[in-house]
Protein: Oxidoreductase
Amino acid sequence: MMMIFGMFPFSIPTATYQQLQRSTNWRHPSNSRVGDMPAYQFIGRGEDTITLEGSIVPEFGSQMSITALRTMGDTGKAFPLISGTGKVYGLYILKDLQETQTYFFKDGLPRKIDFTIQLEQVQKAGTLIGSTASKLIGLAL
Structure:
């Protein structure tokens, strides 16, 4: 398994990605000043977005994988994102899913499906782990 998003594992039988791009920004609004450069104030971390680009070949993976991801996006819920090495990224929402079907069989089934998925963080990993641990401790007491 390369990564898991909620209950969806990215792997050869489902969908594999060839590229993972992560973008993080920080917020620095400006205040105009007379006769001087604007003053900037750091107000915190901004958006954290992960973009996955990959392919599904029906001989190895299932076209239903895209349907499963679309269904997850339809819920509007955030899901945990965890790498295959165990790194917890945090809670992410599925913000965008693009699909391109190419090289078709006679019946119209694509031989290759390229996809791009954009995930946006809604809760940091430390907060996710801390709140989960608190709930578990509460259950144990």
The chain has two helices and nine strands. Strands lie at 3-5, 8-10, 16-27, 30-33, 36-40, 44-56, 79-83, 88-104, 110-124. The longest helix spans residues 125-140.
